[in-house]
Amino acid sequence: MDTRSKILTAAEVRSGPPLPRPLLVATGCFDVLRAWHARELRAARERTGAAALLVAVLPAPAAVLDQRARLELVAALRVVDYVVSIDDGDANTLVEALQPAAVVRLEAADARLTRQLIEDVQRRQIR
């Protein structure tokens, strides 16, 4: 299966065929994609019993990977059914439009983990 077929546009998500219910929406930057992301998404899906998981990939300031690469990596995760690229301000609008059973926001954890990664790399360079 070509996992890129999981990638939808915002217009397709809003006006395309209805997504399976109950729906779980997860938001985050996913730069860089980590095993932690896969574990969090799987745990959220199991916790909510969602029939489908839509991941909304947000822009990442000073991203290591471009938006398309992050979309494709997230789409490659088995637990993910659909992926959409959205702007920062569109996350709430998307959630309101879809009325999912649950929402998992990973942005804050993404930022914290990215800072930790940068600090770790910098410490190793100083040695």
List keywords for this structure.
single chain; 127 residues; Rossmann fold; 5-stranded parallel sheet; 46% helix
Q: Which bin fits the share of residues in helices?
A: 40-55%
Query: Could you give the distance between the termini?
Result: 45 Å
Oligomer: single chain
Provide the β-strand percentage band: 15-25%
The count of strands amounts to: 5
- Broad shape: globular
CATH superfamily: HUPs
Main sheet characteristics: 5 strands, parallel
Class derived from helix and strand content: alpha/beta
Distinct helical segment count:
5
CATH class: Alpha Beta
How are the strands ordered across the major sheet? 1-4-3-2-5
Q: What is the CATH topology assignment?
A: Rossmann fold
Total domain count: 1
Quick check: average pLDDT?
Answer: 93
Task: Outline the structure in words.
By secondary structure, the chain is an alpha/beta fold. The protein has one domain: Rossmann fold. The chain has helices at residues 10-15, 35-48, 67-75, 90-98, 107-126, and strands at 7-8, 23-28, 52-57, 82-85, 102-105. The protein has a five-stranded parallel β-sheet, sandwiched between helices. α3 links the parallel β3 and β4 (82-85). The longest helix has 20 residues, at 107-126. The model has no long low-confidence stretch (mean pLDDT 93).
Offer a concise description of the structure:
The protein has 127 residues and is an alpha/beta fold. 46% of the residues lie in helices and 17% in strands.
